[in-house]
Amino acid sequence: MILTVDVGNTRIKASVFEGDILLRHFVFVKEELQKNIKNILKIFTNTAYLVVASVGNIEKESFLEFEKEVVVHFVSHNDSFPFVNGYETPQTLGIDRMVLAAGATLRFPGQNRLVIDAGTCVTFDFINERDEYLGGAIAPGLQLRYKSLHDFTAKLPLLSLESPKEVVGKSTKESIHSGVVNGLAYEIDGFIDEYRTIYSNFIIILTGGDTEFLAKRLKNTIFANSNFLLESLNQTFQYKIKNELKNCSKRLFAFVISFLCSRRDCVTLFLLWNRRH
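Above: the chain sequence. Below: its structure as tokens.
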């Protein structure tokens, strides 16, 4: 079993997988990390790996204490990924974006893919049909938009997420809800339409904490899966293991061939020496 953990800017999400099957999903705050991981490992005693992707501020030591029970792996830029990274600054590309790109590549082979992750930030990541990661965009998410309106103005209130009654807001609160929610929905649809001017055919994957809220507000047809990052973490780690086994087999084969050749050369030299003497 594999326990995947996504450390985000706001919350921590975790899932337990048996192969490609998601057995259980968990969501908790950072302060409850160690307690929840302990409980999960008590429930799923056959867990062999703890795989972590982190963009939030949390110490690795919080996970390393579980090394006696499972193999702990932090996904990094040095891991094997199933795509060619065409980002001009590859080391600055967020691990979460790389994992999503890997998941899209493995889940939808031979297609153009646009992954939209709607969380604290909204990220857009595009991988073409040749498995080349081309880049994307980063924008503020719903909660950041509400907070920004409050923090950077004198009188606008801080509101919680709410569906706007209609496009035309008839009060300050209604206007904020319309601007934040409709604005982001129009923005996402606008990005999708712009991509369509360049690529006529691609699959759109919407994920992240605000997936369900936003999915029904988009005019474009999308594949919505709020757990796509955790599923991608599982797939990416399995890809890494298979890739390492493949490379190990290649090295072992090369060693055997080299060894046999060296033995043949030794036998040849021995026979030549015997002929001369």
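The mean pLDDT is 89.
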